[in-house]
Amino acid sequence: MLTEAHVTQTSITFDGLKAPVLLNDADSLLPTIRAVLPSWNFSTHCADPAVVPSAVLTNVGNNIYRCQLRDPAEPARRWDAVNAVCEMIVALAWEQIEANPSWLCLHCAAVEIDGRLVLFPNRRRSGKSTLTAVLAHRGYRVFTDDFLPVQIDSNGYMNGFANGIAMRIRQPLPAEFSETFQEWAIRTTVTANKQYAYLSPKTLAARGETLPIGAIVVLDRTDTYDLAELSPVSEADVLDDLVTQNFARITHSGRILQASYGVARSAQRFRLTYSSAEAAADQLERALVGTQAQLLPVPELHEMPAEVDLGTVDTALLPAFDNSTSFHRVPHFTEVGLGDQHYVADAYGVGIHRMNPGSRVIWTILEEPASLSEICSILSAAFPETSVEQISQDAEATLQQFMECHLIQPVDRNSGMTE
Asked: What is the CATH number of the domain that holds 234?
């Protein structure tokens, strides 16, 4: 085993990011890092022990690297070179968002069609990365296959930024893909293992390039659907899909909620049901090339709250629930609503919470401090057909859930201020 004295430490500083990545006897990763991040400029230098790195990658031998991210919630993991760099990219995503506080973020793929971005939200096993690769093979520029920083410009339009990271697809490719695509995927592979291949085609947009968002396509892949079909979908359904399927823990959840709401309100909206990625690409070309509607500005969004130190979030330190006290909303939350759907992101940026009709009523009551008994009195008057016992049980359970989600807190009776 290597002792500390024998370890060669290399610090990588990426342009525009504050925290470096630290390599411990892991300079062998540099060619893979360059291949996967072809348009990321970085420098290497001796490590500064006073600087906290965003990620530490340590060579433990036999092409295995121990990866520790700065986020204390993330345990150290051991990966081969390809997956170690993938782990590092998670840290870079955090750093990139932190370095650009005006950015929002979406977990999606994004491809340029006719000068606008078409987004494919993340859904597990939806095939977004493979469909993105098929479109890249056909010459469309790829901005991302995983996460997209977005920003609203001075004219109110939402724009996406290319992340400059090579596309990652699962290995092996299914045999039903065309021979030309299979050959193209092999030619554009820059690094691979048994699980994944990173592709870096000429159509990969450089880091930082920006384009307006024109459409969002929710992917619904099925093995039993013969033809690819594109159908319209409502704003509310897109918002629900983005929030429930698309959550990516690389940034404050309030920013994800704001971005989801903005895209749902301003972009063209479709659902693509398909089984073959190449047939899906055919359908997208027929429907979107030369037919995109006029860009719409994003509805006014609330100012993003200041982010709270995630290290202060500890459910073990929550005050004991006391149903005799009054409660008030915790400040700096983010909320949006479309139709009957209402979502709130807590101030800590940890989660996005969907309000059902009952919890939304209680949430509205809590605009001002209120006790359980006061809430029950209001609800009993509004819903006389429901028993007082049932209202009391439901209201108390909702208040407890709000506390656990860091949405409310007790009122300090002595000072009149929240604790």
From this structure: 3.40.50
